[in-house]
Amino acid sequence: MYNTLNNMPEHHHPMGKYVLPEPYPEINVSAKNPFYAGLLLDDYASQKSELNAINQYFYHHLRFKDVGLQDIAELVVAISITEMHHLEMIGELILKLGGDPRFRGFQNNNNQYYSGEYVYYGNHVLEMLSADIEAEKGAIQQYRRHVDQIQDPFIKAILNRIIMDEEYHLKLFMEAYRKYSAKS
């Protein structure tokens, strides 16, 4: 299995209760495929991508921490770290498929590089959590579309495992949203 972090007891795992215990499949592909590599570039570095999620969640972590919301700051930074792991896996797949994991999206004709303008910065806890919920929903939808488009069983297995994480993140963000809605 790919990720040795998943084999650690929860109290030793850097993301603790914010990570699923299921292991990730081995990073492999059936054959080089530039089209699949291009599709994965959208999961890698577009507006609905792992890179954008990392940046948005880390920014939200800093903002939440700054105003003393330690519990939610811990949540978003842990999820951001999980997204970094996804970014690494997607980047490795892109390389194995014969692509180049630069920070650009496929649907942007490979000329549009990732921009910090994609991040939803926000000014209020509920705004930021709502944006994080929408980011997870968008990622799940995009990954499912790519699972349908890609016929490589190795890639499908990895994407399906990532979807499990994204669904768990969505659940955690929705719980946090409900908690902070009740406090407003």
UniProtKB/TrEMBL annotation:
Keywords: Iron, Iron storage. InterPro entries: Ferritin-like (IPR012347), Ferritin-like_SF (IPR009078), Ferritin_DPS_dom (IPR008331). GO terms for biological process: intracellular iron ion homeostasis. Gene3D superfamilies: 1.20.1260.10. One of its GO terms (molecular function) is ferroxidase activity. Residues 48-173 form the Ferritin/DPS domain. GO terms for cellular component: cytosol. It comes from the Bacteria. Pfam families: Ferritin. PANTHER family: BACTERIOFERRITIN. This is Bacterioferritin.
